[in-house]
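// run 5 | inverse folding | seed 20
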């Protein structure tokens, strides 16, 4: 990376760190820093343009719609404003803003392809930080922040067909695993992202299985083999139920 671009990245990082240092919903500076680090790793492996990847990773959560009344436009707008204030030219601003506008998950039934390799690297990094041990912690941190119940067996998960339905959802934190987090492994864009997602996904599946065992008073039951992923499946009435994807060995 050229020295000028590296200086720009460091200036943007300093501003983002100051802005998000006290954020407590799981979308804090440490999340952004992990995504920055992961995106850089993926970009190197995949041969992506590093300056665009680093800047997009740093500003990807600058104004998340979840904290701005569902407004999808505020994130790209704020990203462009900050980058231009720091002297970035169109060759950086335009691809970064496009990534910020496209990065968010918008529902199980919504596909929004990321057009550029640089965007794919950043999106994979962001989604990797949503799964595994860190993803579990962030899920419950955000759920508490948003006033959501941890779990309610009478509230089924919903595989949202539209972005509006996903934004309006008020489901439990455990439901969020079925509605989004368990889907991310198969939505990774890059070979590097897919490889990194495997173990995180399995750890997360094992956690939720154990959570449900303890919730139902079934812990300690003898079983062998890998954890069985419990999935959300649509029933005939259009609702969803939790079911096992396989049988215990």
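// decoded
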């Amino acid at each position: 990376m050229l020295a000028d671009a590296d200086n720009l990245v460091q200036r943007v990082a300093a501003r983002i760190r100051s802005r998000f240092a006290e954020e407590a919903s799981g979308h804090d500076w440490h999340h952004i820093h992990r995504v920055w680090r992961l995106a850089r790793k993926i970009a190197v492996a995949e041969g992506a343009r590093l300056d665009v990847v680093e800047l997009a990773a740093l500003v990807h959560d600058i104004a998340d719609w979840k904290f701005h009344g569902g407004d999808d436009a505020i994130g790209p707008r704020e990203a462009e404003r900050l980058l231009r204030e720091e002297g970035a030219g169109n060759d950086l601003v335009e691809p970064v803003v496009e990534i910020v506008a496209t990065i968010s998950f918008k529902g199980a039934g919504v596909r929004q392809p990321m057009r550029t390799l640089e965007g794919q690297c950043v999106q994979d990094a962001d989604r990797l930080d949503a799964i595994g041990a860190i993803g579990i912690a962030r899920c419950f941190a955000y759920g508490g922040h948003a006033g959501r119940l941890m779990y309610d067996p009478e509230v089924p998960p919903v595989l949202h067909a539209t972005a509006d339905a996903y934004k309006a959802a008020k489901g439990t934190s455990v439901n969020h695993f079925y509605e989004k987090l368990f889907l991310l492994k198969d939505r990774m864009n890059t070979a590097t992202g897919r490889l990194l997602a495997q173990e995180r996904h399995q750890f997360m599946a094992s956690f939720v299985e154990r959570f449900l065992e303890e919730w139902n008073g079934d812990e300690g039951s003898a079983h062998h083999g890998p954890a069985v992923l419990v999935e959300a499946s649509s029933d005939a009435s259009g609702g969803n139920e939790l079911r096992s994807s396989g049988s215990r060995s």
